[in-house]
Amino acid sequence: MAFDAKKVKDDIIKWIRDWFEVNGKGCNAIVAISGGKDSSVVAVLCVEALGKDRVIGVLLPKGEQFDIDVSLALVEHLGIKHYVINIEDCFNGLISQIKKAAGEDAIQTQTITNLPPRLRMAATYAVSQSFNGRVANTCNLSEDWVGYSTRYGDNAGDFSPLSLLCVREVRALGRELGLPAVLVDKVPIDGLCGQTDEEKLGFTYDTLDAYIRDGIVPETQTKERIDRLYAINRFKVRYMDVFPYSVEE
Fold it and tell me: How far apart are CA 168 and CA 228, in angstroms?
């Protein structure tokens, strides 16, 4: 079935309005703006649903961010209030304290990679609590499928408009919403490891989306990698596993 971008756009806008009526009547939508398609699409959807006066963008560079001008252009285009909060001092301070407590060798590569998204989410929630907000999750299905997110970092949030949409569908939504090509077609990059998403994953989102949506199986090595990433990262999209205790009658 062909993806109907206009219908999905209208349905998501209504869903956001309805969600806020139940879960935050009168609250603001807080969106961490990265300059990529996902946060851009979520920001526009929230503006369409709630009005620009109820959407706040949070820009979270770590030191110098080479593409922050794209994020600034988006919030200015939308006319939404926004805050730029640099996490570099917080990151450096926490890494320094971990080294002091556990030794220089305690810091692993994944620590360096995943700490910034968690600090960004902490900052986003701080803004949310300061300005009567609800935090938008900006992950999509393709990223979640292979675990390309940080648990309690960018995969956190209070409501998620895009979690069941794959990359190609998010791009179609962006075009339907009138976003410029620089945002919709920008090469996805996390800004943390120096690689694009697809370089790090080892396959393209087009290949992944075709596998998820159309059942088009990629060559064996790629299929095995996708299936492995899917299997080992399912825990990220669950809130938390709990011991199934119950009081016996």
Answer: 22
Tokens linked to 202: 């080892």
Number of residues in the chain: 249
DSSP assignment letter at 100: H
Nearest C-alpha neighbor of 201 from the set 216, 187, 185: 187
Strand ranges in the chain using DSSP code E only, listed in sequence order? 28-33, 55-59, 81-84, 133-135
* Structure-token pair, residue 23: 């879960």
Q: Where are the alpha helices (DSSP H) in 103-203?
A: 109-130, 141-145, 167-176, 181-184, 197-201
Q: Which two tokens stand for residue 14?
A: 């209504």
Is pLDDT of 147 > 60?
yes
Which amino acid is present at 197? D
Query: pLDDT of 167-183, one tens digit each?
Result: 999 999 999 999 988 88
Q: How wide is the angle at C-alpha 131 spanned by C-alphas 184 and 178, nearest 5°? A: 20
* Cα 227–chain centre separation: 22
